[in-house]
Design brief:
There is one protein chain. By secondary structure, the protein is α/β, with parallel strands linked by helices. It has one domain: Aldolase class I (TIM Barrel). The protein is 35% helix and 16% strand. α7 links the parallel β10 and β11. α4 packs parallel to α5, α7 runs parallel beside α9 and α10 packs across α13. The longest helix is centred in the middle third of the chain and has 19 residues. The two termini are 34 Å apart.
Length: 389
């Protein structure tokens, strides 16, 4: 599979969303009759899409709105919502900052010494979500997981995500206590989702220690700059295929199915459909939801690592406001670029491919098609409409 890139060194060719296409099969299905259910622990979600745990995307109000529409919104416990009693004031500051000021401002607002995360606010935010009778799902970095989990569990959290730039079972550090993932997962009373990974071996190892689901993706997000700053990452199609292969192998060997969640890099419905065809059971999306009128970012979006004190690996970007959360998730779409009615796009694609459920979506034919975005689209590209935007 690998090609020579120089004397004694080979590299494997990997693929992203723009390089592949899905091939219709011999059967088609009424899109209204396909099943998009995503199962996580004891919960079933009709919408297999998670809103990313980013402060410009998810707050309490957004989490409630997403939950009522059948999806999942993940609240970032390391962020603004748990540091400030009035997060709206802080969000206004970020939205009003100039591009030159934005990164420095975000770094200062997320300063753990001056503005630490408060346990009482963790509990309060989760309780506010639960009061609306929708699932409360939260995330934090490994260093905070044990402390935050205890507070979150007492407040009634339904699932807990341990999320870092690169997740491994064997982490080496002397400056801080290392989270024992196996011990953490074994003792947990709610599903534990772990990320992010991009390789077969790491996905398999995380499943072995008890992860309830795996987040796949390093650096593909619209506001993430890790690939530029650190030079690491694997394009999402290949990463998803590799990690879903680990899921299937683990299921055959252990009899426990661990869902794969492709996280990042998907802007439009077609890319979400390709993620499922590559093996995803659900997807996590940020920038598409940052455009919602209900999103707390005021039309701006920034990565979770933007606030790193010494080496920010994200940036604040302007995405604008394109419509309501319902329009983006369920339609009706009012734009022509595929960024709205994401569930409708998934169902229509599944119907055209003959996939009656997400599991069957994993088996559709995928081809290499580098011209798929441009073939016959000269007018759209020239006029910057539809696929030419």
């Amino acid at each position: 599979m690998a090609e020579w890139i120089g004397i004694g060194r080979r590299a494997r060719r990997c693929y992203g969303f723009d390089e592949v296409a899905l091939v219709p099969g011999m059967v088609t299905v009424n899109p209204n009759e396909v099943d998009t259910t995503f199962v996580l622990g004891k919960y079933k979600f009709s919408v297999p899409i998670l809103a990313a745990s980013m402060d410009g995307v998810v707050d309490v109000k957004f989490a409630i709105a997403m939950g009522k529409l059948g999806g999942i919104a993940v609240l970032n416990l390391d962020g603004i919502q748990t540091r400030y009693d009035d997060p709206d004031e802080i969000l206004d500051q970020i939205a009003k900052a100039t591009p030159e000021e934005a990164t420095k401002l975000v770094q200062s607002l997320y300063d753990g010494k001056n503005f630490p995360v408060k346990d009482k606010l963790i509990a309060k935010r989760i309780e506010q979500i639960k009061k609306a009778k929708v699932p409360a799902i939260v995330s934090c970095i490994p260093q905070n997981a044990e402390r935050f989990y205890k507070v979150a569990l007492e407040a009634g959290v339904d699932a807990f995500i341990v999320q870092s730039t690169v997740a491994t079972v064997r982490h080496i550090a002397t400056e801080y206590k290392i989270l024992d993932l196996e011990k953490f997962c074994t003792a947990a009373k709610v599903p534990i989702i772990i990320g992010n990974v991009v390789t077969y071996d790491m996905a398999l190892e995380l499943m072995e220690v008890g992860a309830s689901a795996i987040l796949v993706g390093i650096g593909p997000g619209a506001a993430c700059t890790s690939r530029g700053v650190l030079g690491i990452g694997v394009p999402q199609i290949t990463a998803t295929v590799d990690c879903s292969s680990a899921r299937d192998y683990y299921f055959k060997r252990r009899g426990r199915y661990v869902p794969i969640i492709t996280d990042g890099g998907m802007r439009i419905g077609g890319e979400i459909c390709k993620a499922f065809a590559a093996g995803s059971d659900a997807v996590m999306v940020g920038s598409a939801f940052a455009k919602a009128q209900e999103a707390p970012g005021r039309g701006y979006h920034w990565g979770m690592a933007t606030s790193h004190a010494n080496l920010p690996r994200g940036t604040r970007i302007r995405v604008g406001l394109s419509g309501t959360l319902k329009e983006i998730l369920l339609g009706p779409a009012k734009v022509d670029d595929g960024s709205q009615n994401l569930v409708g796009a998934l169902k229509t694609s599944m119907g055209s491919l003959g996939a009656r459920n997400i599991s069957e979506m994993h088996d559709v034919e995928m081809i290499l098609a580098p011209s798929i975005q441009t073939e016959g689209k000269v007018f759209q590209i020239g006029q910057r409409v539809g696929m030419g935007k």
